Amino acid sequence: MGQLHARRTVRRVRRVAVFGAAVVFAIGSAVAATTASTPAGQPAGQKVAEGSDCLSCHAVDHKVVGPSLAAVAGRFAGKPGAQSLLMNAVKNGHVGTWGQIPMPPHPQLSPKQLQQVVAWVLSLAPSSKAPAAGAAATTAKLYHYVVNGKTVSLNFQVFQPGTHKVSADVFRGFELFNSYCFRCHGTDATGSEYAPDLRKSVLNGMSAARMTDIAMVGAKAKGMPSWAGFFEPPQIRKIYDYVAARAYKLVGQGTPQQ
Ligand code: HEC
Ligand code: HEC
């Protein structure tokens, strides 16, 4: 339970930080009475998003676990009632408009924070870019490794070129896995009686994006915590890289060579 405790502590500290920022803002605006931005020029709503868990699941310009915030703006900006509709969605949680993945509720946000964060989302320019996912897929570089006479092709680098030393990302993934995931998923991603062997999940076709969805949303009723607000997607990506390197037997048990 040590890990879960540590996690709660981090959340509490974050919440305090958000509260502190809101107070500073309130004083600042009373004195200066200018626009809804902090001294650094950052919209207050963006601060709320950064202090909460929003950026674990959302990016401004591309889909992560939830829709891109620019796409949300494109769908709702200028529509009557959008502000209160979206405040309700963020406060109480929502599912079905963008797919089958649910957004969790945010009871900890004050009405003012909800108002600010939604106003910020609605202020974002709708994305006119072509969907980035397809472009990224076609240009993704592949790395080929030979394991026991078979070639494995991966879309990320396992080793530093020309060495047997793992990449910084794989090494960080090893550290994160053995700090936060090992208790249920087994040390060095070996699986356990408590939770699935994630090497098998990868071999069965789980992508990094899918692992991010599951890790951020969690499955509380089944004992899988939600990591939203604790991790952001790049960290889950590193965990994925390590687990995949383990799954394809490129990296053994124990501390990888760095
Ligand atoms: C665990 C992942 C997760 C977190 C954390 C999260 N969201 Fe979401 N969000 C989603 C998903 C998934 C959807 C799509 C829900 C749907 O299909 O109706 C969504 C949808 C939305 C929408 C559109 C709602 C609608 O009715 O179309 C807004 C606005 C939004 N999120 C803002 C936020 C804000 C602000 C935060 C932080 C306070 C946040 N989200 C945190 C996953 C998340
Ligand atoms: C407290 C125990 C616990 C911890 C810690 C934990 N998990 Fe889980 N995880 C579970 C359980 C239990 C399941 C199975 C849930 C189910 O049956 O839906 C699961 C399922 C998953 C799945 C889906 C596997 C599949 O094939 O469907 C992924 C991905 C996952 N966890 C990733 C992670 C990552 C990444 C971490 C560390 C950041 C982590 N988990 C930490 C308990 C845990």
Order of helices and strands: HHHHHHHEEHHHH
The shape is elongated
Portion of residues in beta strands equals: under 5%
Q: Give the CATH H-level superfamily of the largest domain.
A: Cytochrome c-like domain
Helix content: 40-55%
**Structure summary, number of beta strands:** 2
Specify the structural class: mainly alpha
Please compute the radius of gyration using only Cα atoms: 21 Å
**Termini, distance in Å?**
30 Å
Label the CATH architecture of the largest domain: Orthogonal Bundle
Could you list some keywords that capture this structure?
Cytochrome Bc1 Complex, Chain D, domain 2, mainly alpha, binds heme C, 258 residues
In short:
With 258 residues, the protein is mainly alpha-helical.
Q: Any overview of this molecule?
A:
The chain has helices at residues 2-32, 44-51, 54-57, 69-76, 82-92, 111-123, 132-139, 168-185, 198-203, 208-217, 233-247, and strands at 143-147, 150-154. The protein has 258 residues and is mostly helical. A two-stranded antiparallel sheet has the order 1-2. A hairpin with a 2-residue loop joins strand 1 and strand 2 (150-154). The longest helix is centred in the first third of the chain and has 31 residues, at 2-32. Bound molecules: heme C (HEC) (2 copies). One heme C (HEC) binds at residues 49, 52-54, 56-58, 65-67, 72, 86, 89-90, 94-99, 101, 103-104, 106, 117, 121, 216-217, 228.
